[in-house]
Amino acid sequence: MTRQYAYPLELARYVRDHWPAGRTLRLSDELLTEALAIAFEASLTSEEARPTRFRLLLTPPDALPENGRPNEGVLRLKFAESRALTADELRGLGPSAPFEAALIGAHAEGNDLRIWGIAHSGPAWLAPTWGGRNVVPNWTYDPIVHVNGPGRLAVRCAGKLVGGLERGALVNATLDVFDSEWLPAMFERELHEVQEEHAAGQARTRSPTAADQSLVGRVGQHMLRRAIQLVRGSRHGGMILVVEALADSTRVLENLGIKYCFAADEPPRRYRTLLFQILDRLASGTTSPSMDWSDFARATHPDLEKLEQSVFEMSRLIASLAAVDGAVVLDKRFAILGFGGEVSGDLPAPLRVWRATDVRQPRRRGRLLGAVGRPVGPALTGPSRGRAARSGSRRGGARPAPRGAARPAPRPRRCRRSRAPSSRPRRCRARPS
Question: Of 222, 186, 220, 216, which Cα lies nearest the Cα of 199?
Answer without folding.
Answer: 216
